[in-house]
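Interim report to the steering committee. The following record documents the input for D-glycero-beta-D-manno-heptose 1-phosphate adenylyltransferase (640 residues).
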Amino acid sequence: MAGAAAEERRLATVVASWQQRPVLVVGDAMLDEWRFAESERLCREAPAPVLTLRRRISAAGGAANTAVNVAALGGRAALVAPVGADVAGDELHDCLDRAAVWDRTVSQPGRHTPVKRRMLAGNQILLREDSGGPEDGLDTDGVARLLTALHCATEELRAVAAGQPLTLVVCDYGLGALPSAVRAWLVANRDRYGTVALDAHDLADWRGLNPTVVTPSFAEATRLLARAAAGFAHAERGAVPSGDVHLDHPAEADGPSELMVGAAPGGAGERVPGSPHPTSGTPAAEAPAGPTGEPTPGEERVALTGDGLSVTGTGVTVSAAAGAGVDRAVLAESRLPELREHTGADVVAVTLDTEGAVVGGAEGAPRRSHSTPVPASHAVGAGDAYLAAMTLALAADAGLPTAAQLAQLAATITVADTGTCVCRRQDLLAALGTDADEGGHPALVGADELAALVDEHRQAGRSVVFTNGCFDVLHPGHVRYLTQARALGDLLIVAVNSDGSVRRLKGPDRPVNPVEDRIALLAALACVDHVVVFEEDSPARLIEAVRPDVYVKGGDYPPEMVPEAPLVRRLGGQVRTLGYVPDRSTSAIIDRIRAQSHSMSERTERSEGREAMPDRHSMSEGREAVPDQHSPAVGEGRPA
């Protein structure tokens, strides 16, 4: 139980560290409309139920719901997307305002805001009506205004980021919000964002973006591999396929259990220019280059056939070792390296709806997460919550297993009822069992929460002590120092340098421990009341927000030499320095570890060298490698 509690607290530290992270969301925004009705009789004109409308709910959908989830989880979200100048667009603006999302959408006269209208009876979806789509494309002026909005929103977020790198989330659902000019701008400006997440129905359209993470569904991942296979086949014939297929596919399988994804007979997935569309007869040059809108339900189905698995609706045949137990998770996991190669992403998370997800990166084993099966009406938008939490965690420098765990948890706790899923920060922390102190405040707080939190403590008559540092390898010197600092007042706030800040201050080989581990250990100390992470090299901004009664630094120098001393005194506080415990510094501990590691390596090399000498000597003499009991030992009777 203690281990589980420690793990939950470690995850909670990551949630605290992403507070107010600046995130720009761009893509296909839509309105989700839910109409709840009752039915007690059938229609006389047809065998259909007669519905009486009882309740109507509107919610942000698509890219807009991703932005809402980012804000609800504690990030600072701005949305750039084209929205129609219509009633649905007005309702979408209201949804964004209520969620505290920076609404930077671009109104497009004549364009219909995409809407998904669901009619339910007894929480069962009876039908869904969709309006708005790729046919409502942006005109030249609309594209120009969208590009301007992208640039301005980026600069707005940069102005309030306080040195934090910006994060970009791209939601491309094929509804026309991201034409080629917008995609080209995002690719060209990739270096303006630290973390980039991509959720796209057609991942092949995003060549060159090199995202941090992509989150395709199983169907979307399969279609990408199909396009890769088609491109490879056409390259073999010397043809240039339509749709700018640029992806490679391995020429050989890796073994009998390897997932084989290729084009179905007839070149499914891509067509040679001029060849007719298999269903419409339209030449390929006039047909859409890739899928638009949502994947059909059929594209998510996997059927077991005599010679393997067939993914219906995509023209993709998946062959695997014969036998029971082959499922989508196994197939997805076997193709994670290819998906990473084809997308240029550091991390690929293949979502499997009610079956969870499979996540893999460049290092470490793939991670499988699970979800609880729920009715389809409960899971609408759960992928947006997953994407938001995954992105925020990676932006906060969390490890991939941690990010995957938090993303799955965020998606899972939102599916308790019918409606568009939104995961709130307090719900995620509650699911992690995060405890609050006696004042009702968590040990781990965001920088923007700090000033209000300190005001409440001061109103209760408590004096505030503030200190900061890297606390890379927590040791007895730190514990003694923090205990002494806590004794100087009623409340101790510890500000911790982010991983990026530590690297700038200490060098590229630091920190040894990531920020989520460092703040988890600090928050577990009884002498520490609150922990906050800061990105800058100096804690000056936090000092101005806290206005500490006592500012404490470690060291044997006088308080006058502390760089922050003038600021603290100007704000009415005093500065104290506390000496370190001898030979208990982080650098000294790291040096001892390195010295011991070097010494062990030398002993190992000398040992291996002695073992190798008989083999070399015996081989040169034409004798067996191991001398018998009558043979002189190596070195006997010979010069050293």
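Confidence is low (pLDDT under 50) at residues 232-326, 435-440, 610-640. The committee is asked to note this result when reviewing the revised timeline.
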